[in-house]
Design goal:
heterodimer, A: mainly alpha, MetI-like fold, 2 domains, 82% helix, B: alpha/beta, Rossmann fold, four-stranded antiparallel sheet, 25% strand
Chain lengths: 255, 261
């Protein structure tokens, strides 16, 4: 970043904080919408006593499990839809239908079906993850240039080699885009699920602070959400940049 | 596999159009391509040249007739026939560097790392890209990418190269260089070439045999020439110029016929 960029970005953050600070006590009731410095103090206390870490880890753990399962299932399903005629005929209608149902709306069903414990959270996260991954994977697999497949056939590649060495690598940019979108969806899913039925996690933290009139804690939870999202997305990009760089050469920069 | 002639016999091809009608693209195409020759198929745009090449490659089946090597019918793609595509960016594997692209065929043939490397070295040198072996396609110009595609095909040691307007998308200077170099590569490797173009100049510069196609639909072969032109071939040679105008007249006739329809 050059000095110009640093200047404007710092100014942007400062402006946002000032607006918040000014509006608390004027536009909004300062008890319900506390000023940023009060939130900062509270955030520090919650960090010091480990409460932040406890809730952050609770959410993160759920996301790791659900996202991993959802990604694997999503890639396999997407490949099947794009490559196997019967799979397309059988899976396309339900997928096209279900993709319109937002993960938040599925939470009551998840609780009914899988109870109040972890499995219902996993279900919601898998559901949030799988939809973007399936559709992006299928699009990527289907968009493999025909002549690339034909070139590989001329060079002696059999069906498996064509899939593993040509179709899948051609689809990686699409699949990774789907996985990145899904990571954001997974956090939305878990927070919503925790707000409705949970005893830990950032979503629970936020909902509890509303119920118990602890606005500083609510803001701390929101800040935490932003931070976790930012860090995981950066970590995702960093990992892709390291491991999958050669597959991203075929498209514009991944950022 | 040792064969003597590639035969196309009574090849016809129909496509079902989007509106459900039938497009009759090719009708009764019969050709004989001798082993070792540089056989060019020249025709106006949209006459079905690429369709014919796809049939020889085994990507598409003919509606009637078919292609065969000696008496063995072409039933699908095979390592004895390698296609060089015009759209080289999609034809190459963008996630592989030049060397890895060239080694793909040998890898599919389950050759060991030593021999793969040797082959890649040989053919990257042949196309003049040995210094760029580590570069990825996106780092290379269109002409360089096309060289890699040629090296990749040759590294697999096919009998025939099927070339679908391979230099048509290149700038004029690059194209000229590649044409000259490719003719050298052909004479050094002794491969049979089945070449498609709509460029008369290119056809006369490169080929030993030239088949001019009629305009589609129901395209066929108008005339076949054996080109015994003075070497080195040059548009300023009288025989080259005479042949040029002769072929141009044939093509013009076809374009007129297409317009009159």
């Amino acid at each position: 970043m050059n000095r110009r960029t640093v200047f404007w970005r710092t100014l942007s953050v400062a402006a946002a904080l000032s607006l918040w600070w000014l509006s608390s006590g004027t536009l909004f009731n300062p008890i319900l919408v506390p000023a940023p410095h009060k939130v900062a103090v509270h955030l520090w206390e919650m960090t010091a006593d480990g409460e932040i870490l406890f809730h952050a880890w609770a959410s993160l753990r759920r996301v790791i499990v659900g996202y991993a399962l959802g990604s694997v299932l999503g890639i396999l399903t997407g490949v099947a839809v794009a490559r196997i005629r019967i799979a397309e005929d059988m899976l396309e209608p339900p997928l096209q239908f279900v993709r319109n149902i937002t993960p938040v709306a599925i939470i009551p069903l998840a609780v009914n079906a899988f109870g109040l414990e972890e499995p219902s959270k996993y279900f919601v996260i898998i559901y949030s993850t799988i939809i973007p991954v399936v559709f992006n994977t299928a699009a990527g697999v289907a968009s493999t240039p025909q002549i690339r497949v034909r070139a590989a056939m001329c060079l002696g590649a059999g069906r498996w080699d064509i899939f593993a060495r040509v179709v899948l690598p051609s689809a990686w940019p699409f699949i990774l885009t789907g996985l990145r979108v899904a990571l954001g969806f997974a956090f939305m899913g878990v927070v919503a699920a925790e707000m409705i039925a949970a005893e830990s996690g950032v979503g629970y933290l936020i909902m509890q602070s509303r119920n118990m009139l602890l606005p500083e804690q609510m803001f701390s939870g929101l800040f935490l959400l932003g931070l976790i999202g930012l860090v995981t997305d950066r970590a995702f990009q960093f990992t892709i940049g390291r491991l999958m760089r050669r597959y991203m050469l075929q498209t514009a920069a991944f950022d | 596999m040792s064969w003597r002639v590639l035969r196309l016999e009574g090849v016809g091809k129909d496509f079902t159009r989007a509106d459900g009608g039938v497009a009759e693209v090719l009708r009764d195409v019969t050709l004989t391509v001798e082993r070792g020759s540089f056989f060019t198929l020249l025709g106006p745009s949209g006459c079905g040249k690429s369709t014919l090449l796809n049939i020889v490659a085994g990507f598409e089946g003919a509606t009637t007739g078919g292609a065969s090597l000696d008496d063995k019918p072409v039933a699908g793609p095979g390592t004895d026939r390698t296609v060089i595509f015009q759209d080289v960016s999609n034809a190459l594997f963008p996630w592989m560097n030049a060397r890895e692209n060239v080694e793909f065929g040998p890898k599919m043939a389950r050759l060991g790392a030593g021999e793969r490397k040797e082959r890649a070295d040989t053919y990257l040198r042949l196309v003049g890209l040995d210094a760029d072996a580590g570069k990825f396609p996106f780092e290379l110009s269109g002409g360089m990418k096309q060289r890699i595609q040629i090296a990749r095909a040759l590294a697999n040691d096919p009998d025939i190269l099927l070339m679908d307007e391979p230099f048509a998308a290149l700038d004029a200077i690059t194209k000229k260089h590649l044409q000259v170099e490719f003719r050298k590569i052909w004479s050094e490797t002794g491969k049979t070439i089945f070449y498609i173009t709509h460029d008369i100049f290119e056809a006369l510069l490169l080929s030993t045999h030239l088949a001019v196609m009629t305009a589609g639909p129901k395209a066929g072969i108008k005339e076949v020439f054996q080109l015994d032109l003075a070497e080195p071939r040059s548009p300023s040679n009288p025989d080259f110029a005479a042949m040029y105008s002769r072929v141009e007249t044939l093509i013009d006739e076809e374009v007129q016929r297409m317009r009159a329809r």
